[in-house]
Amino acid sequence: MRLFRNLFKTNSKSDKGQEKPETPERSKYMPEIQLPTDERFMLNFKNNGGKFLYCENEQEMTEAFDNILLENDWYEQLTCCFDPVLRERFKNYNLSFTTSGEAAFFLSTCEYLIANDGSILISSNQIKEKKLGELPTNFVILASTSQLIDAIGEGLRGIKNKNRNHIPTNITTIKNFENDKEGDFMSYGSSTKNLYLLLLEDL
User: Fold this and answer.
1) Is 118 left (phi over 0), alpha (psi -120 to 50) or beta?
2) Which domain holds residue 106?
């Protein structure tokens, strides 16, 4: 995940004033060069309007979560969360957990991060049988770099392989597109969300 590690580094002094080597022109008939998975996800996710916070370790993730709560004044607010592990992890943040959509924000993990369109793949493991429109407008999603994949098809196969005994239902994608593309059955019935993604480096 070289991109994430170098994302916020500034150019060194030795780089300044140096001429960049010319890149040879590519024929229009050559296949388009595809960016690495992590770069494609970050660009598409941010273009969708998502807020992206890269964390090198658990401490940085905790600090980022704390900053989100402060920024939005979500301390001592109702928090929609179905995951008992997350409830235990953040029990000391003066949050009142509920399973109702009438909450300040929704706290969850996800199944996968889809690079091709910058979306987040979730299932009943995260949202039970709720529709996205029944959940709060604000989402805080915790994920790791090992969950980055190229396409939805990979994610569906991954969900099936991880849950052989009981395949989850209610599989959908969270996007922040202003206008969802027509014909995208994976986001049918979804609604626009104010989305924070805390991405933990684990590779």
Assistant:
1) left
2) 34-200
